[in-house]
Specification:
single chain, Ribosomal Protein L4, Chain: A, elongated
Length: 207
């Protein structure tokens, strides 16, 4: 178990908390992180690019003119890809780019992402935000006091005041423990954990 400082909303150390070495202190392999991040990104691709093939073009299938004797190249349907307004050969069609990786690999990558933040001193823990109202200015003051920018904040449940206060801050994202993922952890420079969320994060890996 590793000890991590717990800060208050003024950026002062108020206590320490223990975090599991099996979740926050494992060797990091870039290849595993890359595979899971790539999986997350391709799932977001819409795959809606679409063109019409010759079978989908409106028009007659009648041969345009006789085969021989006109001096022109032989021709068939007006829907031929060689003609203006004809179908497209081998064009894109709607598809899904999604693929999956084993659950154990996804779990391992999440542990590695968390471990990388701790190893690089990019992980902080706060005891509570204690926001009684929706106030972006108050939220900005807390983040400034902690000395953080470009931060992913992990909470253990619904906190409407915090979520709405942080919504208009461009370089901050608030996420619940069950939505924690590799891409978001690596995307943001800092990871800020609510102290009560640590148990929930470790609980995701409980056998």
């Amino acid at each position: 178990m590793a000890a991590v400082d717990v800060l208050n909303r003024s950026g002062e150390k108020v206590s320490e908390t223990q975090i599991s070495d099996e979740v926050f202190s494992i060797p990091v392999k870039k290849s595993v992180l890359h595979e899971v991040v790539r999986m997350q990104l391709v799932k977001r691709r819409s795959g809606t690019a679409k063109v019409k093939g010759r079978s989908e073009i409106s028009g007659s299938t009648k041969k345009l003119y006789r085969q021989k004797g006109t001096g022109n190249a032989r021709s068939g349907s007006v829907k031929s890809p060689l003609r203006r307004g004809g179908g497209v050969i081998f064009g894109p069609s709607q598809r899904s780019y999604a693929y999956t990786v084993p659950k154990k690999v996804k779990a391992l990558a999440l542990k590695m992402a968390l471990s990388s933040k701790l190893a690089n001193n990019e992980l902080s823990v706060i005891d509570t935000f204690g926001m009684d109202q929706i106030k972006t200015k108050e939220f900005d003051g807390i983040i400034d006091a902690l000395g953080l920018k470009n931060t992913l904040i992990v909470i253990d449940g619904d906190d409407r005041n915090l979520a709405l206060s942080a919504r208009n801050v461009s370089d901050v994202k608030v996420i619940k423990t069950e939505g924690l993922n590799v891409y978001d952890i690596l995307k943001y420079d800092h990871l800020l954990l609510l102290e009560s969320s640590i148990k929930g994060i470790e609980g995701r890996f409980a056998k």
